[in-house]
Amino acid sequence: MSSVKYVIGVDGGGTKTEAVAFDGDGEEWSRGVSGFGNLVVDPEQAAQNIEEAIDRCREPLKGLDCAYIYLGLAGIEGTPHRADLEQRLKERFRTRISLANDAMIAHAASLEGKDGILTISGTGSISWGVCRGRVAFTGGWGHLLGDEGSGYWIAIEAFRQMIREEEESRTRGPLSRALLRRLDIDRVHDIKTLIYESSKAEIAAVVPIVAEEADGGDPFSRSLLERAGRELAEQTVRLHRKLDFQRRVAIGLKGGVLLSVSPVREAFVQWVKESIPQADFVEQDVPSTKGAYFLAIQELQKHG
Amino acid sequence: MSSVKYVIGVDGGGTKTEAVAFDGDGEEWSRGVSGFGNLVVDPEQAAQNIEEAIDRCREPLKGLDCAYIYLGLAGIEGTPHRADLEQRLKERFRTRISLANDAMIAHAASLEGKDGILTISGTGSISWGVCRGRVAFTGGWGHLLGDEGSGYWIAIEAFRQMIREEEESRTRGPLSRALLRRLDIDRVHDIKTLIYESSKAEIAAVVPIVAEEADGGDPFSRSLLERAGRELAEQTVRLHRKLDFQRRVAIGLKGGVLLSVSPVREAFVQWVKESIPQADFVEQDVPSTKGAYFLAIQELQKHG
Known about the structure:
Chains A, B: InterPro entries: ATPase_BadF, ATPase_NBD, Euk-type_GlcNAc_Kinase. The structure is a homodimer. By secondary structure, chain A is α/β, with parallel strands linked by helices.
């Protein structure tokens, strides 16, 4: 790649889309931000937001040559709009374009484009693996089919415990008391309205309350977070079995639940080590656009 | 109640609202049907539909005196519109009005207004109990907080088994093969799109496939249906513990899953008997509007 060329990495999520231009050494040259880039939310508006982020990123770089645009978009799988979007972006920007899942570019960011597994637990959860060109995943089935170990899952399990206490006329535990107090709810029955009228992210936002109660010594909160870590570890090990890794394997951690909630992270690391003693854990939190950059460079090197 | 008086029972659900007028002996005099009566779907449209069903039911009874309108409405709990609706119906129909949950009138229909527990498993599940004026329930928390033993729950568990087989690179079991064939899906990944774009009722509609595979000898399908029956039994027993029943207790069964899927019903009866040997099972499928009639008559007798 000559010095006047650059590549753009795009990270399109449920609330915003970021496009970042990098030179051949991975230095950031410019950046554009716009609204959501998740095709499931609204495919036409997402496509417009993605174009807008790229336009804003390219504006300061007029006259220079964009060699590649690599996009990682939430909800790209299972939409019938993928091929249309690719065609539309190719015509609009007249350069080489690749579309991938948002987990794919997060993986490349964390593991610097190398082989290994990235396990993410934020509102949802997924394990994404790349091994000598083969790509596979476990989890990522969403809240209805079970994203065990995710923030949403932890929150729902906390509310289910509250329901069990209510139905079995047991004394309310410290976590239930903390949740009712912090959410300003009197009756357990009112959590039903709360859950069905809130977004998944809003529900997952109670995880810090669980973490506080665990820190404060509540055994149920602690064991719930450890269960989350173990679920994420098992998901990671299932993926490790599917892909034919060499002796050592890099395992990246990402997402607020896995990185910031210590009992989850500690249980995760312990249970992964049990099954994969050769694991090297990577906890660096690199923006996903940088992962798109690594993947763009790989494509340019592969295909010239 | 004099012979020129009648009462109306209303059953408002997610797709239709039925209003039936009964004379003092419980004989049906007339009937009106309209669209959904679930306040959660759209409170104003639901209110209009409810009024329309009652209007249609009253049309052939002009000149006669309506002594009571008893309504059982899905989603009446947790909506802020209950008081408004009651006021609106009182002004419009100028008679005594009671609003209750749809499970309450289903209970009264099955147990002829007497004490006992009704356990319902259709798309969702709930156990509703009445004991000497006290009303309580277990379950009914909906698909996100867990309506174990419901048709939706059985379907999701079937799809989760398919996911486990896929993630663990196991051979597909008979149920997974049947589901993929009958839903015309090639890749397990496509069930994600299917689940997130379908209604709960559409998802629960795969239960007959599970029942067929269980009949055909598939151990997983059979044990899944038995687990559903056991979950419903445990929910029923939790409610029995909450309410202070006398020696014998009537336990009604309702809903397609509990009444029509034999392994579910058999496991349910067996597990309930284990904890409540004095249970009398009631399997008659009486329309819920008749339950509203029983409750209206009780109100008239109580308050004159």
